[in-house]
Design a protein that fits this description.
Layout: H1 3-32, E1 36-40, E2 44-48, E3 50-51, H2 65-77, E4 86-93, E5 96-103, E6 116-125, E7 129-132, E8 139-143, E9 149-158, E10 165-172, E11 177-184, E12 196-202, E13 205-212, E14 219-227, H3 230-249
Parallel strand pairs: 3-4, 4-12
Antiparallel strand pairs: 1-2, 1-14, 4-5, 5-10, 6-9, 6-11, 7-10, 8-9, 11-14, 12-13
Length: about 250
Amino acid sequence: MPKHTLIDTLLLDKTMHLKLAISIPTLLTINAFAGVVQIDGAGSYQLQSNTIDGVLQGNSPYLSTEDLAIIHQVLNSSGVGTDGKITLLPIDTANGLALFTLMDQELGGGDNGSDAFIGLTSTASSSLQMFINDSSQDNWNLIEPPFGSQTLGATFVWGSLGSGDGFAWSGMSIGDALSYTFTSIDGSVGLDAEAFQFVGWGSNGWSIMGSDGFKDDGSQVFTGAVVPAPPAAIILTALALNRRRRRRNN
Protein backbone atom coordinates (compact mmCIF):
# COMPACT_ATOMS: atom_id res chain seq x y z
CA MET A 1 0.00 0.00 0.00
CA PRO A 2 1.49 3.41 -0.93
CA LYS A 3 2.53 5.58 1.97
CA HIS A 4 0.03 8.39 1.27
CA THR A 5 -2.82 5.88 1.09
CA LEU A 6 -1.92 4.45 4.49
CA ILE A 7 -1.81 7.94 6.03
CA ASP A 8 -5.14 8.82 4.48
CA THR A 9 -6.63 5.62 5.85
CA LEU A 10 -5.33 6.31 9.36
CA LEU A 11 -6.63 9.88 9.27
CA LEU A 12 -10.04 8.68 8.07
CA ASP A 13 -10.19 6.07 10.81
CA LYS A 14 -9.23 8.67 13.41
CA THR A 15 -11.90 11.05 12.09
CA MET A 16 -14.56 8.34 12.22
CA HIS A 17 -13.62 7.52 15.82
CA LEU A 18 -13.82 11.20 16.72
CA LYS A 19 -17.28 11.56 15.12
CA LEU A 20 -18.46 8.42 16.91
CA ALA A 21 -17.14 9.74 20.23
CA ILE A 22 -18.99 13.03 19.72
CA SER A 23 -22.26 11.63 18.37
CA ILE A 24 -22.78 8.84 20.91
CA PRO A 25 -23.05 11.07 24.02
CA THR A 26 -25.30 13.45 22.09
CA LEU A 27 -27.67 10.68 20.97
CA LEU A 28 -27.67 9.08 24.39
CA THR A 29 -28.58 12.45 25.91
CA ILE A 30 -31.49 12.80 23.48
CA ASN A 31 -32.78 9.31 24.24
CA ALA A 32 -32.52 9.93 27.98
CA PHE A 33 -35.58 12.16 27.60
CA ALA A 34 -37.55 9.85 25.32
CA GLY A 35 -38.89 6.36 25.57
CA VAL A 36 -40.65 3.52 23.83
CA VAL A 37 -43.69 1.77 25.29
CA GLN A 38 -44.31 -1.79 24.11
CA ILE A 39 -48.02 -2.66 23.98
CA ASP A 40 -49.09 -6.31 24.03
CA GLY A 41 -52.51 -7.94 24.18
CA ALA A 42 -54.59 -5.70 21.93
CA GLY A 43 -52.04 -6.34 19.19
CA SER A 44 -48.33 -5.70 19.58
CA TYR A 45 -46.97 -2.20 18.99
CA GLN A 46 -44.01 -0.06 19.97
CA LEU A 47 -44.99 3.53 20.72
CA GLN A 48 -42.23 6.16 20.56
CA SER A 49 -42.73 9.15 22.84
CA ASN A 50 -42.30 12.85 22.09
CA THR A 51 -42.97 16.13 23.84
CA ILE A 52 -46.16 18.19 23.71
CA ASP A 53 -45.55 21.64 25.15
CA GLY A 54 -47.51 22.70 28.21
CA VAL A 55 -48.77 19.25 29.18
CA LEU A 56 -48.67 17.78 32.70
CA GLN A 57 -46.83 20.56 34.48
CA GLY A 58 -48.87 20.40 37.70
CA ASN A 59 -48.92 18.02 40.63
CA SER A 60 -50.48 14.56 40.88
CA PRO A 61 -53.34 13.68 40.63
CA TYR A 62 -54.57 16.74 38.73
CA LEU A 63 -54.82 16.41 34.93
CA SER A 64 -56.53 19.51 33.62
CA THR A 65 -59.17 19.70 30.93
CA GLU A 66 -56.90 22.21 29.19
CA ASP A 67 -54.10 19.60 29.10
CA LEU A 68 -56.43 17.13 27.40
CA ALA A 69 -57.58 19.75 24.88
CA ILE A 70 -53.93 20.54 23.98
CA ILE A 71 -53.14 16.87 23.36
CA HIS A 72 -56.23 16.38 21.21
CA GLN A 73 -55.45 19.50 19.20
CA VAL A 74 -51.89 18.33 18.50
CA LEU A 75 -53.04 14.84 17.51
CA ASN A 76 -55.83 16.17 15.29
CA SER A 77 -53.38 18.51 13.53
CA SER A 78 -51.23 15.42 12.79
CA GLY A 79 -54.21 13.68 11.19
CA VAL A 80 -55.05 11.47 14.18
CA GLY A 81 -58.79 11.59 14.88
CA THR A 82 -59.69 11.10 18.54
CA ASP A 83 -63.47 11.53 18.57
CA GLY A 84 -65.23 8.34 19.69
CA LYS A 85 -61.89 6.70 20.50
CA ILE A 86 -59.87 5.53 23.48
CA THR A 87 -56.40 6.76 22.58
CA LEU A 88 -53.14 5.74 24.26
CA LEU A 89 -49.88 7.59 23.62
CA PRO A 90 -46.57 8.22 25.44
CA ILE A 91 -45.55 11.86 26.02
CA ASP A 92 -42.34 13.31 27.48
CA THR A 93 -43.44 15.76 30.17
CA ALA A 94 -42.08 17.84 33.03
CA ASN A 95 -43.12 14.88 35.23
CA GLY A 96 -41.17 12.39 33.12
CA LEU A 97 -42.29 9.87 30.52
CA ALA A 98 -46.07 9.48 30.76
CA LEU A 99 -48.48 7.08 29.09
CA PHE A 100 -51.78 8.90 28.53
CA THR A 101 -55.20 7.31 28.08
CA LEU A 102 -57.62 9.70 26.37
CA MET A 103 -61.32 8.93 26.60
CA ASP A 104 -63.03 10.48 23.57
CA GLN A 105 -62.17 14.00 22.37
CA GLU A 106 -61.98 16.81 24.92
CA LEU A 107 -62.29 20.27 23.33
CA GLY A 108 -61.65 22.21 26.54
CA GLY A 109 -65.23 23.08 27.48
CA GLY A 110 -65.68 20.46 30.18
CA ASP A 111 -68.37 17.79 30.44
CA ASN A 112 -71.51 18.15 28.30
CA GLY A 113 -73.77 15.28 29.21
CA SER A 114 -72.78 11.63 28.87
CA ASP A 115 -73.06 8.98 26.18
CA ALA A 116 -70.76 6.24 27.46
CA PHE A 117 -69.46 4.81 30.72
CA ILE A 118 -66.15 2.94 30.61
CA GLY A 119 -64.81 0.96 33.55
CA LEU A 120 -61.05 0.71 34.01
CA THR A 121 -58.65 -1.11 36.28
CA SER A 122 -54.98 -0.27 35.72
CA THR A 123 -51.99 -1.43 37.77
CA ALA A 124 -48.53 0.16 37.79
CA SER A 125 -45.39 0.37 39.91
CA SER A 126 -45.79 2.30 43.16
CA SER A 127 -42.95 4.57 42.02
CA LEU A 128 -45.14 6.13 39.30
CA GLN A 129 -47.43 9.12 39.64
CA MET A 130 -51.06 9.03 38.58
CA PHE A 131 -52.88 11.98 36.98
CA ILE A 132 -56.62 11.98 36.33
CA ASN A 133 -59.02 14.48 34.76
CA ASP A 134 -62.07 15.61 36.73
CA SER A 135 -60.47 14.15 39.85
CA SER A 136 -63.07 15.77 42.08
CA GLN A 137 -66.00 14.44 39.99
CA ASP A 138 -65.12 11.03 38.53
CA ASN A 139 -65.78 7.85 40.44
CA TRP A 140 -62.24 6.60 41.06
CA ASN A 141 -60.04 5.05 43.71
CA LEU A 142 -56.29 4.48 43.92
CA ILE A 143 -55.26 1.45 45.96
CA GLU A 144 -51.66 1.69 47.17
CA PRO A 145 -50.63 -1.50 49.00
CA PRO A 146 -47.15 -1.68 50.59
CA PHE A 147 -45.70 -4.28 48.20
CA GLY A 148 -44.54 -2.22 45.24
CA SER A 149 -47.60 -1.70 43.01
CA GLN A 150 -50.69 0.49 42.88
CA THR A 151 -54.04 0.02 41.16
CA LEU A 152 -56.42 2.61 39.78
CA GLY A 153 -60.09 1.70 39.60
CA ALA A 154 -62.27 4.24 37.78
CA THR A 155 -65.46 4.78 35.82
CA PHE A 156 -64.95 7.30 33.02
CA VAL A 157 -67.82 9.23 31.47
CA TRP A 158 -67.88 11.12 28.20
CA GLY A 159 -70.34 12.94 25.99
CA SER A 160 -70.36 13.02 22.21
CA LEU A 161 -70.68 16.83 22.10
CA GLY A 162 -67.02 17.67 22.64
CA SER A 163 -66.34 16.44 26.16
CA GLY A 164 -63.93 13.71 27.13
CA ASP A 165 -61.88 12.33 29.99
CA GLY A 166 -58.50 10.76 30.60
CA PHE A 167 -55.65 9.83 32.90
CA ALA A 168 -51.91 9.13 32.79
CA TRP A 169 -49.18 7.23 34.57
CA SER A 170 -45.98 9.31 34.69
CA GLY A 171 -42.35 9.08 35.78
CA MET A 172 -41.82 5.86 33.82
CA SER A 173 -38.40 4.44 33.00
CA ILE A 174 -37.08 1.32 31.26
CA GLY A 175 -38.50 -1.81 32.87
CA ASP A 176 -41.68 -0.24 34.24
CA ALA A 177 -44.77 -2.28 33.35
CA LEU A 178 -48.46 -1.41 33.28
CA SER A 179 -51.67 -3.42 32.90
CA TYR A 180 -55.08 -2.27 31.68
CA THR A 181 -58.50 -3.89 31.92
CA PHE A 182 -61.36 -1.96 30.28
CA THR A 183 -65.06 -2.77 30.56
CA SER A 184 -67.84 -1.16 28.54
CA ILE A 185 -70.37 -0.65 31.33
CA ASP A 186 -73.13 1.13 29.42
CA GLY A 187 -73.00 -0.32 25.92
CA SER A 188 -70.79 1.38 23.38
CA VAL A 189 -72.71 4.54 22.55
CA GLY A 190 -70.37 7.02 20.87
CA LEU A 191 -67.62 4.45 20.41
CA ASP A 192 -66.15 3.39 17.07
CA ALA A 193 -65.95 -0.35 16.37
CA GLU A 194 -62.16 -0.06 16.63
CA ALA A 195 -62.49 1.83 19.90
CA PHE A 196 -58.85 1.56 20.98
CA GLN A 197 -56.03 3.24 19.07
CA PHE A 198 -52.34 3.26 19.96
CA VAL A 199 -50.41 6.33 18.86
CA GLY A 200 -46.67 6.96 18.66
CA TRP A 201 -44.18 9.46 17.30
CA GLY A 202 -42.43 8.83 13.97
CA SER A 203 -40.76 10.55 11.05
CA ASN A 204 -44.12 12.03 10.01
CA GLY A 205 -45.16 13.16 13.48
CA TRP A 206 -47.85 11.47 15.56
CA SER A 207 -49.53 8.52 13.87
CA ILE A 208 -51.68 5.48 14.70
CA MET A 209 -49.54 2.36 15.17
CA GLY A 210 -52.46 -0.02 15.70
CA SER A 211 -56.06 -0.34 16.81
CA ASP A 212 -58.48 -2.84 18.33
CA GLY A 213 -62.02 -3.06 19.64
CA PHE A 214 -63.83 -4.40 22.67
CA LYS A 215 -64.19 -8.19 22.84
CA ASP A 216 -67.55 -9.90 22.58
CA ASP A 217 -67.94 -9.78 26.37
CA GLY A 218 -67.42 -5.98 26.39
CA SER A 219 -63.89 -6.08 27.78
CA GLN A 220 -60.37 -5.31 26.58
CA VAL A 221 -57.14 -6.30 28.35
CA PHE A 222 -53.56 -5.40 27.45
CA THR A 223 -50.20 -4.51 28.97
CA GLY A 224 -47.57 -1.85 28.43
CA ALA A 225 -43.86 -1.83 29.26
CA VAL A 226 -41.09 0.73 28.77
CA VAL A 227 -38.35 -0.76 26.59
CA PRO A 228 -35.05 0.67 25.25
CA ALA A 229 -35.47 2.95 22.25
CA PRO A 230 -34.14 1.38 19.03
CA PRO A 231 -31.51 4.14 18.40
CA ALA A 232 -30.05 3.54 21.85
CA ALA A 233 -29.80 -0.19 21.12
CA ILE A 234 -28.03 0.53 17.82
CA ILE A 235 -25.52 2.80 19.57
CA LEU A 236 -24.78 0.19 22.23
CA THR A 237 -24.23 -2.41 19.50
CA ALA A 238 -21.86 -0.06 17.65
CA LEU A 239 -19.90 0.51 20.85
CA ALA A 240 -19.55 -3.22 21.42
CA LEU A 241 -18.39 -3.83 17.84
CA ASN A 242 -15.93 -0.96 18.08
CA ARG A 243 -14.43 -2.38 21.30
CA ARG A 244 -14.05 -5.81 19.69
CA ARG A 245 -12.34 -4.31 16.65
CA ARG A 246 -9.87 -2.39 18.83
CA ARG A 247 -9.05 -5.56 20.78
CA ARG A 248 -8.38 -7.45 17.54
CA ASN A 249 -6.18 -4.64 16.22
CA ASN A 250 -4.22 -4.54 19.48
